[in-house]
Amino acid sequence: MADTMYAGLSFEQVVKAYNQTVVSVCVMRLKNMNDAEDCFQNTFVRLYQKSPEFSDEEHLKAWLIRVAINECTSYIRKNRRTVSLSECKEQAVEFPHDDTDISWALMQLEDKYREVLFLYYIEKYKVNEIADIVGRKPNTVKTLLSRGREKLRTIYGGDSSE
Amino acid sequence: MNDKNFDSLKNLKAPEKWIENALNIPDTVAKKPAVIPFRIHRTLAYVACFVLVCVLSFTLFITTHDNATPPVDRNFPTEENAKDESLEIENDSKDSKEEEKKNFFEKVFDELFDTDKKEKTSNGLSSVVEQVENETKPKPTIKPESTSPSDKEEAIKPSTNTPSSTEPSEKPTEKPTEKPSDDDEQEIPTDGAPDTEIPTTKPPQKPTVPDDKPEPSVPQTPGDNTPGNPGESSGPGTNQTFVTFTIIVDDYYIDAGETVLCAVYDPNGIEVCSYQNASLYRSGGYTFATFSTYINSGAVSGNYTCHFINSYYHSLGVDTQYVSN
Predict the structure, then answer these.
(1) What's the pLDDT at B50?
(2) Is the dihedral of CA B134, B140, B141, B144 positive or negative?
(3) Does residue B298 carry a pLDDT above 60?
(4) Which among A136, B38, B166, B289 could bridge A140 via Cys, Cβ 3.0 to 4.6 Å?
(5) CATH second-level architecture of A1-94?
(6) What are phi and psi of A140, to 5 degrees?
(7) What is the CATH number of domain A95-162?
(8) What are the residue ranges spanned by the domains of chain A?
(9) Cβ–Cβ of A156/B4 closer than 8 Å?
């Protein structure tokens, strides 16, 4: 194993601690488990190869999310291919329609809204932190959050007051 | 949205296979070696370009400023440097030579025009021939008063050297105080000396020497007295000196026909020999133009000049030989 430490954690500890976060980001972005696997592996390969220095675990987590988003973006860019609908249905991640768990509604939003809402509601980041991770201005992030909420509400059919 | 959640997405777990593969990354993926960042590459490239430009500029400055001669070669004298220096000297001498040729060309051109107008050269040549003929005649020193045969023999004294043994024992007591003029010399006295031989151009024989056989009339050339010039020698004719003029010719000025003309001038600037063909020969990488002629040196002694020109009247060079009486 590698001797390099990442914010006080070994590579194995980092994988075990943050694999769920990376998988969530990849699936949220790609909506496909096979593609998400590639990006998942590439994210940790990048961590191992680059071995950057992290101030704390939050920094490490933010770095992993950022790298995972970039890997997914580059993966989509590189693998623009046409697939059959049946193949797409087989590989797509299915979330159950539930009144409380609205993950299925989130997956139907556009990428830019889905990304911001995921970081805000699931990863519990603040607007400024999301702005740093996504590389946008805080006001832009606020706008995206507001519009994303409205779209999401429209999708799952909730009240605007909620 | 307070009662809503995203638990299914949040609690999404990676398969065990993914985690195993991720844990095996350090064993399968080699760590990238520490490479120099691109900015360092860029900085090195900038520095290299700057150094290259400086070196090229300096080299260009040296080559243009110092006439393409590297300073190292100047510091260490070698055979090549010696050759270069000799070439520079040749170039300098070439410039002066060209100026000399130019002046000579103008001089020759003027003389040619003067010759056409005044027929200066032909007159000069004829006067030289007359002068030489007069001088080749032995000057008789005839005393007008002497009547005896011995006196006559003494009187008929050629200008050439006569052995002392041939002199008679009786010497005349009276010597003429005044030398006769040229006109007087030509007047031959016939009154008191009917048997006196008329002096001719032939040198007198030696009648007083009993054992002396009559020698052929070999003329004594005055060229014997001339200093030992290399291109000068005694000619077969009377009072004629064989003179050879030689110059080194630049091949650039020789036309396809390789015609080189030359003219010889006496010390007074009179043309002795009009333009004639000179012979060319090559030796040691140089081309020599040579012209040999007989000069009646009895006329004028001094430096005789031979001007070599090509068929376009371009001066090729001048050679001078000293000819004395």
Answers:
(1) 95
(2) negative
(3) yes
(4) A136
(5) Orthogonal Bundle (1.10)
(6) -65, -40
(7) 1.10.10.10
(8) 1-94, 95-162
(9) yes
